C-alpha cells in the first residue's frame, strides 16, 4: 500500500477492529474501511481481541426497530475498556450514523467519531482530528463524496470479491429507509467497473458479485435500459473470470435482455436472488412495489425456460401492516408456484422513519409468528424437494473457506456449486485450497446443503487457489472483519440486522 497517505500521528502501529451489521453494501463498505485504516498505518487486531483494539469501528444498519438498542448496548460494553485505555478510539458509521447523527454522541459521549454512508473515506482524518482536538468529530455528508470503489480496500477473500456498480436507490418502498440514508441511485462508469474486475482477476480472483441496492436498475443515470445486460455480457469477455453473480435485482427492472444475457454468457452463473416481499397484489401495492404476483411469477417462468437448472431464491416479509389471512395465502400460493431453492423470510418489524411504521392495522406479533412458521415450514419442504433433484448430478464446486463448520470432524471440505448451492464433499487425497475447483457427484440432499460422499471425480488447481496460498503464507491468518452477514457467495440465512430493503432489493 502507498505510504503517502499514512497519518504522521500513527508513530507505532495501532490496531483496529471493524464490526459490521446489515446488508452486502455494509460488508463491502467495511472492506473499504479496513483498507483505509491499513493505508493509514493501522493493523488488524488479533483474533478474539473483542474490543481491545486501539480503534473499534461500528458499521451500522438502521433497518430494524431495535438497531439503535443493539448499537448502544455494544457501545456501553466498550465504555469501561476505553476508561482503562485513554488512547482507545471508537467510531460509528453506516446507516444508523447517517440517520441519528448527533444523537449518538449525546447518548454515548465516549464515541470519538461519527461518519455517514457518503463519506466513509474521511474516517482516518476524523480519527486524527478527534485525537488532536480531544473532542468528538461528527461529519455526515448529504451526498456521495467519492464512489466507494475508488478507496483502498482490504478484501476478505483471495478468490471472490464484491464489485459495486451503483449506490443508492430510486425506489420508495414503504418498509425501507435505505433511500433516505444512501441517497438516490448513482451509477458507476462501466469502464471503471470492468477495470476493477480485470485488476481483481489479475490478482487471482475468479468469482465476482456485482453489487447494488437495485443492481439491475444500473443505467438509469444515463438513460440506458440495457446497460446492465451489456455489463453482464462484457464480464463474459474477461479472461480468467470464471463466475459472475449479482445482487439484488428488482422485479420492476428485470427485463428480457437481462435474462438473455444471463443465459448466453457462460460465466454468469445460473442463480438468481430476486426479492418478492409478498405474493399479495394488495400488500405489494401498500409496499409501493411496482409489480404484482403475475409479473413476478412470469419472470420466474422466463428465467427457468432460459436456464432450466437455475436456482432461485427470494426475500419475503410476513405480517406487513394490513396483511389479511387471504393476503398471506396469496404469498403461500406464490411460493408454491415459484419453488424457490431457498427464501429468506422475515417477520415485519417497524423501521422508524418509514411510511409503513405509521400505517394502521399493525399485525399482532402472535399472528405474525404463526404465519412465519407456516411459511418457513412450506419453504423448508420445497427447498428439500428441490435439492433432492440434484442427487446424481455431477457438479464443479469452488472450494470455499469457512463454510463447513463440521468439516474438520467429518474429513470433508465445502464449497459452492455454480448455482450457489452449498456442497459438502469428501476431502480429496491431494492438497486442495480455497478457490480451487473440485468435481463431485451429489449423493444426498438436505434442505440447506448437498452432500457428495464418494471420492471426488477431479481436482483443478486454480490461480485463485494460488492467490489464497500466497496470501496465507504471507502472514498469519488475521481475525476477520466481524461481519453481520455471511461472506461472498454465501446464501445462508441472514441475521436479524440484515433485512430486505437494505441492499436486498
UniProtKB/TrEMBL annotation:
Pfam families named in the record: Radical_SAM, UPF0004
Main localization of the protein described in the UniProt heading: cytoplasm
Residues that coordinate or bind [4Fe-4S] cluster 2: 169, 173, 176
Location of the protein in the cell: Cytoplasm
Positions of the TRAM domain: 388-456
Gene Ontology cellular component terms for the protein in this record: cytosol
Residue intervals of the MTTase N-terminal domain: 14-132
EC numbers on record: 2.8.4.3
UniProt xrefs under CDD domains: Radical_SAM
Cofactor: [4Fe-4S] cluster
Database matches in InterPro entries: Elp3/MiaA/NifB-like_rSAM, Methylthiotransferase, Methylthiotransferase_CS, Methylthiotransferase_N, Methylthiotransferase_N_sf, MiaB_methiolase, rSAM, rSAM_horseshoe
Gene3D superfamilies attached to this UniProt entry: Methylthiotransferase, N-terminal domain, tm_1862 like domain
Similarity section: Belongs to the methylthiotransferase family. MiaB subfamily.
Protein name: tRNA-2-methylthio-N(6)-dimethylallyladenosine synthase
Species per Swiss-Prot/TrEMBL record: Streptomyces halstedii
Amino acid at each position: 500500500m502507498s505510504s503517502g497517505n499514512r497519518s504522521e500521528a500513527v508513530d507505532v502501529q495501532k490496531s483496529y477492529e471493524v464490526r459490521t451489521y446489515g446488508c452486502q453494501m455494509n460488508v463491502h463498505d467495511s472492506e473499504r474501511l479496513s483498507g483505509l485504516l491499513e493505508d493509514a498505518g493501522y493493523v488488524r487486531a488479533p483474533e478474539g481481541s473483542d474490543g481491545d483494539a486501539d480503534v473499534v469501528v461500528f458499521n451500522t444498519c438502521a433497518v430494524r426497530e431495535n438497531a439503535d438498542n443493539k448499537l448502544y448496548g455494544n457501545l456501553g460494553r466498550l465504555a469501561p475498556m476505553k476508561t482503562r485505555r485513554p488512547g482507545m478510539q471508537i467510531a460509528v458509521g453506516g446507516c444508523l450514523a447517517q440517520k441519528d447523527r448527533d444523537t449518538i454522541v449525546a447518548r454515548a459521549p465516549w464515541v470519538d467519531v461519527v461518519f455517514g454512508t457518503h463519506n466513509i473515506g474521511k474516517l482516518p482524518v476524523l480519527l486524527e482530528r478527534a485525537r488532536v482536538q480531544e473532542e468528538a468529530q461528527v461529519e455526515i455528508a448529504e451526498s456521495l463524496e467519492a464512489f466507494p470503489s475508488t478507496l483502498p480496500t482490504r478484501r476478505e477473500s483471495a478468490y471472490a470479491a464484491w464489485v459495486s456498480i451503483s449506490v443508492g436507490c430510486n425506489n420508495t418502498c414503504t418498509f425501507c429507509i435505505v433511500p433516505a440514508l444512501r441517497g438516490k441511485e448513482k451509477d458507476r462508469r462501466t469502464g471503471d467497473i470492468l477495470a476493477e474486475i480485470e485488476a481483481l482477476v489479475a490478482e487471482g480472483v475468479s468469482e465476482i458479485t456485482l453489487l447494488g441496492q437495485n443492481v439491475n436498475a444500473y443505467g438509469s443515470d444515463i438513460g440506458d435500459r440495457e446497460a446492465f445486460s451489456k455489463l453482464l455480457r462484457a464480464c463474459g469477455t474477461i479472461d480468467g473470470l470464471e463466475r459472475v453473480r449479482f445482487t439484488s435485482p428488482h422485479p420492476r427492472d428485470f427485463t428480457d435482455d437481462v435474462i438473455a444475457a444471463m443465459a448466453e454468457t457462460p460465466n454468469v452463473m445460473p442463480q438468481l436472488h430476486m426479492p418478492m416481499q409478498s405474493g399479495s397484489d394488495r400488500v405489494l401495492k401498500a409496499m409501493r412495489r411496482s409489480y404484482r404476483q403475475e409479473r413476478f411469477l412470469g419472470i420466474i417462468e422466463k428465467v427457468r425456460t432460459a436456464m432450466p437448472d437455475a436456482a432461485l431464491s427470494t426475500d419475503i416479509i410476513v405480517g406487513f401492516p394490513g396483511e389479511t389471512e387471504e393476503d398471506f395465502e396469496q404469498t403461500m400460493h406464490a411460493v408454491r408456484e415459484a419453488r424457490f431453492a431457498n427464501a429468506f423470510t422475515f417477520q415485519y418489524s417497524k423501521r422508524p422513519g418509514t411510511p409503513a411504521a405509521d400505517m394502521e392495522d399493525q399485525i399482532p406479533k402472535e399472528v405474525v409468528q404463526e404465519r412465519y412458521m407456516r411459511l418457513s415450514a412450506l419453504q423448508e419442504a420445497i427447498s428439500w424437494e428441490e435439492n433432492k433433484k440434484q442427487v446424481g448430478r455431477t457438479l464443479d464446486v469452488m472450494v470455499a473457506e469457512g463454510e463447513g463448520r463440521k468439516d474438520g470432524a467429518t474429513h470433508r471440505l465445502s464449497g459452492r456449486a455454480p448455482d450457489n448451492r452449498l456442497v459438502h464433499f469428501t476431502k480429496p487425497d491431494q492438497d486442495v485450497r480455497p478457490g480451487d475447483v473440485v468435481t463431485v457427484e451429489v449423493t444426498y440432499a438436505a434442505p440447506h446443503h448437498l452432500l457428495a460422499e464418494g471420492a471426488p471425480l477431479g481436482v483443478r488447481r486454480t490461480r485463485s487457489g494460488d492467490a489464497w496460498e500466497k496470501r496465507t503464507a504471507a502472514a498469519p491468518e488475521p481475525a476477520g472483519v466481524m461481519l453481520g452477514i455471511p461472506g461472498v457467495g454465501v446464501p445462508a440465512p441472514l441475521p436479524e440486522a440484515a433485512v430486505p430493503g437494505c441492499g436486498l432489493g
